[in-house]
TrEMBL record:
This is Aminotransferase class I/II-fold pyridoxal phosphate-dependent enzyme. GO terms for molecular function: transaminase activity. Keywords: Aminotransferase, Pyridoxal phosphate, Transferase. Residues 55-338 form the Aminotransferase class I/classII large domain.
Length: 351
């Protein structure tokens, strides 16, 4: 029998196998409508046959990104989406047998990769009010800890971390020779960043993505921001051409047109405020932590709501974790999208 890495062989993976193309997608925190059509068409006109025939070059995008972020190009490594950033984290810095401290529940891919690379999860759980104690987090960090993951904000629950909390966690991790990852996938919806810590500490990495607010999840482009030493090690594990030419062109044009980001931000804000107003008016219990998603405690069982909305070509997210078993998560978008969701949800969930 051929050899299979036991960490892979014993890994449990799930995936959504049905096509999502013809649905209003409010289940994965993508922009339900995408980039403005006129901007999309403008970018596509710049993609020529000879451009596609050439191996992709990342230097221009890295330079523009460094200027946008007010850091140096040597502080950035582009990745094939945030999933690739997480994989690189564990492939380069994941010491088998060491602990990974992170909140739970959270983004599932961290658990997938920590198991894949033979690390042990040391979860810090939320209470029934969706709060997590920074003291409990600090208590989990010890000499057996290899990596600490902070998602700011965390999907699907939890409040954003405060600066003094993050600083305490970074310092405790550094005392124990552990890295700290701060995942800022939802930065544009909650524009508080801890990027300045990369200049103060040598054990901090920031993850960002173009998939959420910047609306190109299908292109698969994210990036890691860290000190030069960390980025040097990360790049050793990268594939030769991790980012495709389409992703690079869209990323470059978005960075060249910051008004697009402002317009996308305002469009999501107005839609989210519409949804939150409806939830308040109808006395729904909900949880919003400044991402592009809202948790709603439905009157009917979440799986029934999911199935009924799916019949209306609307997808939402439900959970099996006990703390979330009575909640649905809805991605926020424009007023038009939120109004469509609400009109169907209100009828489906009426008592």
């Amino acid at each position: 029998m051929y050899y299979v890495n036991p960490n892979i062989k014993n890994l449990y993976r799930t995936s959504y196998s049905e096509s999502r193309k013809n649905y209003v997608r409010l289940d994965m925190n993508e922009n339900p409508e995408g980039l403005p059509a006129s901007f999309f068409e403008q970018v596509m006109k710049s993609i020529t046959p000879d451009y596609v025939a050439m191996y992709p070059e990342m230097t221009t995008v890295v330079g523009k990104l460094a200027e946008y972020l007010h850091c140096q190009p040597e502080n950035i490594s582009l990745t094939n989406g945030s999933d690739d950033a997480i994989r690189l984290l564990f492939e380069v810095f994941g010491e088998p047998g060491k602990k990974v401290v992170s909140v739970s529940p959270s983004f599932e891919m961290y658990a997938v990769y920590m198991n894949m690379y033979g690390m042990i999860h040391s979860p810090v759980t939320y209470d029934e009010n969706f709060n997590v104690s920074v003291e409990n987090t600090l208590n989990q960090i010890d000499s057996d800890t290899g990596i600490v993951v902070l998602l700011n904000p965390n999907s699907p629950i939890g409040t954003s971390w405060l600066e003094h909390e993050v600083r305490a966690i970074i310092e405790k991790a550094r005392e124990n020779n552990a890295l700290v990852v701060i995942d800022e996938a939802y930065y544009y919806f909650s524009p508080t960043t801890f990027m300045h810590f990369i200049n103060e500490y040598d054990n901090v990495m920031i993850f960002r993505t173009f998939s959420k607010m910047l609306s190109i999840a299908g292109c698969r482009i994210g990036y890691i921001i860290a000190n030069h030493e960390i980025i040097t090690e990360i790049k050793k594990a990268c594939s030769t051409y991790p980012i495709n030419c389409f992703a690079l062109q869209f990323a470059e044009k978005i960075l060249d047109n910051p008004q697009i980001i402002d317009d996308l931000t305002e469009r999501e804000r107005l839609g989210r405020e519409y949804l939150l107003d409806q939830l308040k008016k109808h006395n729904y219990e909900y949880h919003f932590n400044h991402g592009n998603y809202v948790l709603i405690k439905s009157n009917k069982k979440p799986q029934l709501v999911f199935s009924a909305l799916k019949e209306k070509n609307i997808l939402i997210k439900t959970y099996s974790a006990p703390i979330l078993s009575n909640w649905i998560r809805v991605t926020t978008g424009s007023i038009q999208v939120m109004r469509l969701f609400w009109e169907h949800f209100e009828k489906i969930d009426e008592c």
